[in-house]
């Protein structure tokens, strides 16, 4: 029976052999046609965006993005829509172990694979470090692995499939090391030190105004609370993708979905040890950034692979790498102590925060700074003390994300505000209005504020969401 | 994806012949929503060849036959959602199909693939179990027919041999129009696997629970029935309290695990609630002449 | 193997390895890069295209499975005469920000409107369940789909003038 069925020749692999002549002819013709999209005449209509020099009424009109027509047509060229002639595809082998010493890497099977053009490991990289503030991140880990998303080897091959197969064929022998996976643990003197030395703290900040102790002494009540916000992945819809391309004069062009071109060039120049004038970074339309695409990531690895192979190299993260090998929002541990008068005025606030920085620094200092500045909230508090620390842990690197620490502290101080209001029996909106910044208020950093509209904003919002009805 | 070969079957017999030809190196491909997602990230060697059954005409179609309501294994979740026949004779099946994944997944994913993947959280299983569905399997040794419950062996394991395919699922004639309902609770309303799902069916002649069936998903290695809860209901007058009690009993029959989606205790609580809701939903479908309709 | 599709009204073939997904065939072999790779496992909908009238995840379908079938991608919506109403409305209302999810959202919405010319907001939400957008929050998209639906129902819709017959709505199933 089986043979009988096979003779019906419906095996699609053998389809050409059995297809009617007409189908064959059509199929061949289709193959000969260039594989292009059906024509879309451009521009389709006069563009909707205002022309240079044209005066437009803006208020009350629908805003139109200059790029939205291309978006809707599918014509926006994101980085993964770009291919250079002769381009290779890179894959990076991820450690998959959070804390270890690499004992041995065997790349011989990968190198022998047909289609593999270049293999790279950390030990052969002259300047094996990069980073937008501290240069504490290796291009490829060697010999210490500090988090599971660390790259340990990279391959460039003629297809992504072959690059993946080559990565799978690379064997790495690890000696597991102890690790630290909690920011508060990492503070302890006996904790494992992610980067050696005698502490995991790599950035700290103190902001002081008035005298908190005196403030607490005057307070009618003191509230203490611990608040925690977890790490968050940016999860842009467009995964990290970049192309590295050298010319014969030793000039490097990087095409990348990245938001900070000059910072990227500086960092690349340092790690590749070539003058910045030889590096061009072309930022492509970013398919979602949210702070996660502010710094270079795999670009120096792609550049080194491209140099070895003598051909342009594209690397793209898959969705899993996006979670383990990109940056995330810092997890915050926050202790808030607030002294309040009988009528609900905040007179002293002490904040202590510990940020989980993950394995490398990235934009931790900026995040810590903003968080400390904003940690007292939009409230006039005569006495305040904010101190913050960022610590290394053997986890995904934390970096910049929308607000640089502002949402985390906001969660803490607003949560505590609600607790205070409830305890004192004051309406939550009312207690905020009593403490809010107003014209001429001084912030915790000593800045005198002008054009303060926060009260009006809150009153407007309260009207819009119908607070009176609810309370 | 790793390299593999591809052949397409024109019908179920051809598919079985191709499986015989390629042996254990072959893998059946239906809608591909489970298989391709697996193959992309699997550390295991790929199959030598995938046997595409998505063009097999005799595996398609929803129809009433002498045996009952027949769904070909290649019927997609979307086809179930939009089928007038199902809306009429077994609407709970559509209730279960419409909460699977999203539109795009439902347009590709098939009921056969859902049952054969056999994850405990599958959304097709509970309603079919609650309606005493039977399945037909075809292999080199011919056809065999069995209750759906005998197909499920464990997580991602069925009683199907490597050279067999599932060809159809039948809701028996006597259970058409049987009042039934399906409930699912996930972390989101769409595009989320069930933390728990449940289905219930019963006849209610003279307001008495008759032939009650309760099936639970995501709380045991396979989709299971809750026999103690069913026994409790049998012969009892229909009431909200009885439904709630059946839910509580079913919760004791569940063997949920704790994982990153939810704790075992939470899942157990969900069982009690969802069973009660499924029973109430089924009761909403009871019409006075239902028993006659079915016979 | 050789796979032949009718893409956006034209017959196209490509010689691809059997494990090639429809998404890879469209993007890398036919250079139709409108459909995007967001997750590659069916979760995000950035790869949505319409196959024989139904919205599907091109990342979860083998090119071979689409052999001989009719595929419409985002590139096939506009004509020389004008934008598809969805494209027009999405442009005017700023329904997209970074735009990466846009081709998928528009294709899913087109498939919805082809079958349901007058969708309720809930029907639109249900249809868009499988299209993740990290930028917008969906509100303008949902309004946009309703607006486009109204536009398509009115016979004088200028944006419809150029609809090519090959892309006319498929038969109601
Ligand atoms: C984004 C996403 C969301 C999802 N959400 C849900 C959800 O909410 N609920 C849910 O239950 N499922 C969900 N799924 C899982 C999946 O869509 C279903 O299980 C689907 O029904 C599988 O059918 P398929 O045709 O795609 O199977 P395939 O992927 O083609 O096959 C699955 C398995 O079954 C085997 N197989 C298929 N048909 C047969 C047959 N006739 N005979 C023998 N073997 C066969 C295949 O060899 C394979 O091992 C989701 C999947 C995705 C990608
Ligand atoms: S890329 Fe296909 S669903 Fe995300
Ligand atoms: S507009 Fe950026 S993901 Fe939707």
From TrEMBL, chain A:
Residues 73-178 form the Aldehyde oxidase/xanthine dehydrogenase a/b hammerhead domain. One of its GO terms (molecular function) is oxidoreductase activity. Gene3D superfamilies: Aldehyde oxidase/xanthine dehydrogenase, a/b hammerhead, Aldehyde oxidase/xanthine dehydrogenase, molybdopterin binding domain. SUPFAM superfamilies: CO dehydrogenase molybdoprotein N-domain-like (SSF54665), Molybdenum cofactor-binding domain (SSF56003). This is Molybdopterin-dependent oxidoreductase. It comes from Rhodoplanes serenus. The lineage of its organism: Bacteria, Pseudomonadati, Pseudomonadota, Alphaproteobacteria, Hyphomicrobiales.
From TrEMBL, chain B:
Residues 1-176 form the FAD-binding PCMH-type domain. The keyword Flavoprotein applies. SUPFAM superfamilies: CO dehydrogenase flavoprotein C-terminal domain-like (SSF55447), FAD-binding/transporter-associated domain-like (SSF56176). One of its GO terms (molecular function) is FAD binding. InterPro entries: CO_DH_flav_C, CO_DH_flav_C_dom_sf, Diverse_Substr_Oxidored, FAD-bd_PCMH, FAD-bd_PCMH-like_sf, FAD-bd_PCMH_sub1, FAD-bd_PCMH_sub2, Mopterin_DH_FAD-bd. This is Xanthine dehydrogenase family protein subunit M. Gene3D superfamilies: 3.30.465.10, CO dehydrogenase flavoprotein, C-terminal domain (3.30.390.50), Uridine Diphospho-n-acetylenolpyruvylglucosamine Reductase, domain 2 (3.30.43.10). The lineage of its organism: Bacteria, Pseudomonadati, Pseudomonadota, Alphaproteobacteria, Hyphomicrobiales. The keyword Oxidoreductase applies. Keywords: FAD, Flavoprotein, Oxidoreductase. Transmembrane segments: none annotated.
From TrEMBL, chain C:
One of its GO terms (molecular function) is 2 iron, 2 sulfur cluster binding. The gene is cutS. The keyword Coiled coil does not apply. This is Carbon monoxide dehydrogenase small chain. SUPFAM superfamilies: 2Fe-2S ferredoxin-like, CO dehydrogenase ISP C-domain like. PROSITE patterns: 2FE2S_FER_1, 2FE2S_FER_2. InterPro entries: 2Fe-2S-bd, 2Fe-2S-bd_dom_sf, 2Fe-2S_ferredoxin-like_sf, 2Fe-2S_ferredoxin-type, 2Fe2S_fd_BS, Beta-grasp_dom_sf, Diverse_Oxidoreductases. Keywords: 2Fe-2S, Iron, Iron-sulfur, Metal-binding, Oxidoreductase. The lineage of its organism: Bacteria, Pseudomonadati, Pseudomonadota, Alphaproteobacteria, Hyphomicrobiales. The keyword Oxidoreductase applies. Residues 1-77 form the 2Fe-2S ferredoxin-type domain.
């Amino acid at each position: 029976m089986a043979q009988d069925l096979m003779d019906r020749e419906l095996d699609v692999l053998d389809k050409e052999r059995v297809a009617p002549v007409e189908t064959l002819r059509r199929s061949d013709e289709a193959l000969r046609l260039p594989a292009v999209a059906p024509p879309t005449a451009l521009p389709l209509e006069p563009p909707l965006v205002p022309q240079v020099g044209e005066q437009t009424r803006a208020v009350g009109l629908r805003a139109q993005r200059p790029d939205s027509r291309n978006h809707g047509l599918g014509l926006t060229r994101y980085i993964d829509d770009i291919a250079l002639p002769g381009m290779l595809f890179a894959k990076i082998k991820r450690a998959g172990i959070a804390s270890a010493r690499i004992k041995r890497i065997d790349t011989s099977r990968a190198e022998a694979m047909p289609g593999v053009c270049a293999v790279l490991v950390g030990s052969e990289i002259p300047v094996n470090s990069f980073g937008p503030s501290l240069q504490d991140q290796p291009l490829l880990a060697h010999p210490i692995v500090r988090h599971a998303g660390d790259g340990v080897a990279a391959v460039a091959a003629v297809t992504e499939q072959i690059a993946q197969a080559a990565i799978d064929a690379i064997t790495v022998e690890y000696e597991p090391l102890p690790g630290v996976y909690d920011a508060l643990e990492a503070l302890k003197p006996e904790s494992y030190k992610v980067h050696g030395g005698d502490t995991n703290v790599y950035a700290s900040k103190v902001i002081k105004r008035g005298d908190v102790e005196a403030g607490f002494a005057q307070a009618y009540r003191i509230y203490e609370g611990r608040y925690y916000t977890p790490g968050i992945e940016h999860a842009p819809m467009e995964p990290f993708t970049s192309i590295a391309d050298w010319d014969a004069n030793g000039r490097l062009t990087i095409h990348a979905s990245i938001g900070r071109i000059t910072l990227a060039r500086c960092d690349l120049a340092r790690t590749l040890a070539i003058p910045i004038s030889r590096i061009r970074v072309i930022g492509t339309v970013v398919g979602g950034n949210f702070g996660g695409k502010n710094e270079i990531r795999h670009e120096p690895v792609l550049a080194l692979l491209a140099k070895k192979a003598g051909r342009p190299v594209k690397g793209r993260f898959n969705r899993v790498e996006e979670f383990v090998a990109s940056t995330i929002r810092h997890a915050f541990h926050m202790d808030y102590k607030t002294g309040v008068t009988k009528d609900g005025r905040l007179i002293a606030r002490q904040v202590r925060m510990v940020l989980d920085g993950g394995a490398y620094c990235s934009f931790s200092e900026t995040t810590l700074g903003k968080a400390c500045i904003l940690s007292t909230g939009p409230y006039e508090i005569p006495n305040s003390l904010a101190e913050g620390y960022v610590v290394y842990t053997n986890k995904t690197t934390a970096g910049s994300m929308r607000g640089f620490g502002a949402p985390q502290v906001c969660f803490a101080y607003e949560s505590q505000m609600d607790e205070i209001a409830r305890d004192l029996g004051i309406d939550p909106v009312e207690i905020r209005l009593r403490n809010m910044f107003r014209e001429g208020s001084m912030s915790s950093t000593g800045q005198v504020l002008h054009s303060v509209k926060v009260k009006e904003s809150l009153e407007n919002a309260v009207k819009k969401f119908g607070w009176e009805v609810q309370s | 994806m790793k390299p593999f070969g591809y052949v397409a079957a024109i019908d179920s017999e051809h598919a079985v012949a191709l499986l015989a030809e390629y042996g254990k190196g072959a893998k059946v491909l239906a809608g591909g929503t489970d298989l391709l997602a697996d193959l992309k990230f699997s550390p295991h060697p790929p199959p030598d060849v995938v046997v595409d059954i998505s063009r097999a005409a005799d595996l398609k179609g929803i129809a009433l036959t002498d045996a009952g309501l027949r769904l070909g294994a290649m019927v997609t979740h979307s086809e179930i959602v939009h089928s007038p026949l199902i809306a009429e004779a077994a609407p709970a099946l559509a209730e279960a199909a419409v909460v699977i994944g999203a539109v795009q997944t439902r347009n590709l994913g098939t009921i056969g693939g859902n049952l054969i993947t056999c994850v405990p959280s599958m959304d097709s299983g509970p309603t079919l179990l609650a309606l005493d569905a039977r399945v037909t399997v075809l292999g080199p040794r011919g056809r065999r027919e069995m209750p759906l419950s005998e197909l499920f062996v464990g997580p991602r394991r069925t009683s199907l041999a490597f050279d067999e395919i599932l060809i159809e699922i039948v809701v028996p004639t006597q259970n058409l129009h049987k009042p039934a309902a399906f409930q699912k609770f996930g972390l989101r309303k769409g595009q989320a696997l069930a933390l728990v799902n449940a289905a219930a069916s019963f006849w209610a002649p003279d307001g008495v629970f008759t032939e009650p069936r309760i099936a639970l998903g995501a709380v045991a290695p396979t989709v299971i029935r809750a026999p103690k809860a069913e026994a409790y209901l049998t012969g009892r007058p229909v009431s909200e309290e009885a439904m709630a009690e059946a839910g509580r009993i079913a919760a004791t029959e569940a063997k949920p695990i704790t994982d990153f989606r939810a704790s075992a205790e939470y899942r157990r609580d969900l069982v009690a609630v969802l069973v009660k809701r499924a029973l109430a939903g089924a009761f909403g479908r009871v019409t006075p002449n239902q028993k006659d309709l079915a016979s | 193997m050789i796979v032949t599709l009718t893409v956006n009204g034209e017959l196209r073939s490509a010689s691809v390895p059997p494990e090639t997904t429809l998404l890879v065939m469209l993007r890398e072999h036919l250079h139709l890069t409108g459909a995007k790779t967001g997750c590659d496992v069916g979760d995000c909908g950035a790869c949505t295209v319409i196959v024989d009238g139904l919205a599907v995840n091109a990342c979860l379908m083998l090119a071979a499975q689409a052999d001989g079938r009719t595929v419409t991608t985002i590139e096939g919506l506009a004509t020389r005469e004008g934008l598809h109403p969805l494209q027009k409305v999405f442009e005017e209302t700023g329904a997209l920000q970074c735009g990466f999810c846009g081709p998928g959202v528009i294709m899913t919405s087109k498939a919805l409107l082809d079958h349901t010319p007058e969708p309720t907001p809930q029907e639109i939400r249900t249809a868009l369940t499988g299209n993740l957008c990290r930028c917008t929050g969906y509100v303008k998209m949902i309004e946009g789909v309703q607006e486009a639906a109204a536009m398509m129902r009115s016979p004088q819709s200028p944006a419809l003038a150029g609809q090519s017959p090959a892309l006319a709505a498929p038969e109601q199933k």
